[in-house]
Amino acid sequence: MSARISAWIPEPADLEGAPAQVDLHAIPREGPLPPAFHDAEFVVPPHGSRRVLDALPDMPRLRVVQALSAGVEWLLAHVPPSVTVCTARGAYDVAVAEWVVAGVLADAKRLAQFRDRQRERRWEPALLDEVAGRHALIVGCGSIGRAVARRLEALGVSIQGVARRARPGVAATAQLPDLLPAADFVIVLVPHTPETARLFDAGTLDRMKPGALLVNAARGAVVDTGALLERLRSGRLRAVLDVTDPEPLPPDHPLWDAPGVTITPHAAGDTPAGERRARELLAAQLRRYAAGEPLANVVADGY
Question: Could you list the pLDDT tens digit for every one of the 303 residues in the chain?
Fold first, then answer.
């Protein structure tokens, strides 16, 4: 490791808590990358920036790629095997967990329907549901899944977790088909990997309880959009989606007008507090790297 560490991060380049031996540079939002960028040791790529991702394989001094997102499937194919990739796991737990709970409650209390009736100036009461006493299946039991579980349990919802590998209180993914029929809410929080692509296909969706709610705060490609659309149209399922496949969702896509669905534009984690925690994590990672200490949130097997 050189005496001075060249680190390139999205604008702005000021970062409270960064160590003194790190030279921080801002990755320009547009235009060609500066020649000095290619000598970086530590890079934080802007999400989806093709020009930055395409440059990563040809950077001889690159040692660490730090994402400011919890998911890293969008960059892994561009990073050489010798380079360490780290996620921002933990930074957005509160924001995403609150979004999930908001989606569950909004569905139970028919808020979207009442908003439509408000626009029509139509006073028409409806029978509402309670979430207390219901059962939720959380598919993906990382830090966000645990944050969701705590909040739903406080509302009187019973929880069953599902993850790649079984552990106390958490079932393995292989058990998912047997667990789905009992769930009132199925909350999807898994990363997008080859194993989770279209995990919720027609067969999986048909295992869900009729009238159940699918909540997807993971990645759109984890759910078969066509299969979900059919089940929304039939009234068999309802859904709250922060992610879609394709994404962004084209204006003429039939999912927009499907009955029983609420869509937000991949915004569940976008809060000032979440962004602040991500930058605090970045500063801590730079301190660890400068001190030669192990980094946090290192990706292994796509996670």
Answer: 457 999 999 988 889 999 999 999 999 999 999 999 999 999 999 998 999 999 999 999 999 999 999 999 999 999 999 999 999 999 999 999 999 999 999 999 999 999 999 999 999 999 999 999 999 999 999 999 999 999 999 999 999 999 999 999 899 999 999 999 999 999 999 999 999 999 999 999 999 999 999 999 999 999 999 999 999 999 999 999 999 999 999 999 999 999 999 999 999 999 999 999 999 999 999 999 999 999 999 998 767
Of 98, 230, 247, 275, which one is the catalytic site residue?
Answer: 247
Active-site residue 266, yes or no? yes
List Cβ<8 Å contacts ≥24 apart for 200-207: 200/224, 200/227, 200/228, 201/227, 202/227, 202/230, 203/177, 204/176, 204/177, 204/180, 205/231, 205/237, 206/231, 207/176, 207/177, 207/180, 207/181
Catalytic residue (one of 89, 219, 231, 238): 219
Catalytic site includes residue 151: no
Domains of the chain: 5-90+272-291 (3.40.50.720), 93-263 (3.40.50.720)
Say which of 135, 266, 287, 288 is annotated catalytic.
Answer: 266
| 25 is known as an active-site residue | no
